[in-house]
Amino acid sequence: MKVLFIGHTPENNIPIKRIMGNQFPKIKMIEVTETINLMEMMITDGPFSFVIISIDNKNIFINEIYDQINETLGERPFIFIGSPNSVKSYITSEILQLSQQNFVIETPIVPDVLKKSVLACIEWVKKEEFEESILDFVRDDLHKMRIRNFYLFDQIPYDVYLELTSTKFGKVIAKDVPYSQQLIQNFSRKNVKFLHLKKDDHLKFLETSIKNLIKIYDAKLSDKKKYILLHLKTIFFIHQFIKALTVSEDILKLTHLFIDSVHETVKSFENMIILLDQIAENPNMTFAEHSLATAYVCENILYHMGWSADMSRDKLQLASILQDIGLSNDELIKIRSLNDPKLKNFTEEEQLEFRDHPFKAAQLSTFFHGFSDVDFILIEQHEHPTGDGFPKGINSSGITTISCIFILASNFVSRIAGKEKKTTTYKEIIGNMKRIYNTGNFKDPLKALEKSIKIS
Question: Helix 272-279 and helix 287-305: axis angle, to 10°?
Answer without folding.
Answer: 170
